[in-house]
Amino acid sequence: MSGSEPGAPPRRCRDAGERRALLEHAFALGVPRDYGRKRKLRLQREPARLASIGEDIHGRPQWLQPRAARALAHLREAATNAGVELQVVSAFRSIEYQLGIVERKRARGLSMDEILRVSAAPGYSEHHTGRCVDFTAPGFEALEEEFERSPAFRWLQRNAAGYGFTLSYPRGNLHGIVFEPWHWCWHSPTLCQERHGFARHSGAGRTA
Fold first, then answer.
1. pTM
2. 184 phi-psi bin (left φ>0, alpha ψ -120 to 50, beta other)
3. Are residues 65 and 131 in contact, defined by beta-carbon separation less than 8 angstroms?
4. Which residues partner with 61 through β-bridges?
5. Are 204 and 67 in contact (CB under 8 A)?
6. If you classify domain 47-95+126-202 with CATH, what class do you get?
7. How far apart are CA 160 and CA 79, in angstroms?
8. Per-residue confidence in pLDDT tens, the chain, 208 aa
9. Taking Cα atoms as reference points, which of 148, 147, 161 lies closest to residue 198?
C-alpha cells in the first residue's frame, strides 16, 4: 500500500438514459435480451456514494459503498487477528467497466457463451452495487479455484457471515456461473444470517 490519496471515485452512470445505452451496447455485442430472466439475475444499480478501501494486489485504488467498506474493514481486522491475510483483487466495477471486459474478450475471439460462463453481463454484476469483493491470499493465484484450498477461504466460510458477507456463486449455483470461491458480497446482517443459515441447511456454498 502506498499510503497516497485514492483520488476521485470511479465514474458511474449519470442517469437512467446512460444506463440504458450501455445495456443496449451489451445486447448489440451478443448478450441475450432474456439473459437476466434465464440466469435469474437482477439488474444492479450503481451506488450514489463510494468509499475508498485502499489498494488491491495490483496497486489500484478500490472502492465500496460506505456501509460495505466499514464491514470489510472489520472483517479484515478480525482475519488479521486470527493470523489470516485477506487480499483484495477487485471491488466496485461500473457497468461501463464491465462492458469493456466483454468487449475485450470478444475482441480476443471468445464467444458470448464462453464469456457469460465466467463473467456476469454488464448491468447484472454484483460488483456494480459496490458491495462485493474478490479476495485472494498470499501464495494463491488470484481469481482461481485454488483459493478454495486456502486458510483464508476456510476462515471466510466460518466467519464471513458474522460481518455480513456471503459467498455468491457456490458450486451448482442457480445462475449458471462457475464456482467463484473468491467472490463475496455484503448484505444487511439480518439478511446475511438468513442466507448463511439456508446455505448450511441446503448444502449450498459447501465444498467437497
1. 0.87
2. beta
3. yes
4. 55
5. no
6. alpha beta
7. 9
8. 344 446 899 999 999 999 999 999 999 999 999 999 999 999 999 999 999 999 999 999 999 999 999 999 999 999 999 999 999 999 999 999 999 999 999 999 999 999 999 999 999 999 999 999 999 999 999 999 999 999 999 999 999 999 999 999 999 999 999 999 999 999 976 555 555 554 443 333 322 2
9. 161
CA distances from 145 to 40, 59, 148, 187 (A): 23, 23, 6, 23
Instruction: Tell me the C-alpha distance between 196 and 126, whole Å.
Output: 18
Place of cell 480476443: 108
What region, left, alpha or beta, does residue 172 occupy, with left being phi > 0 and alpha being psi -120 to 50 degrees?
A: left
| Amino acid occupying residue 62 | Q
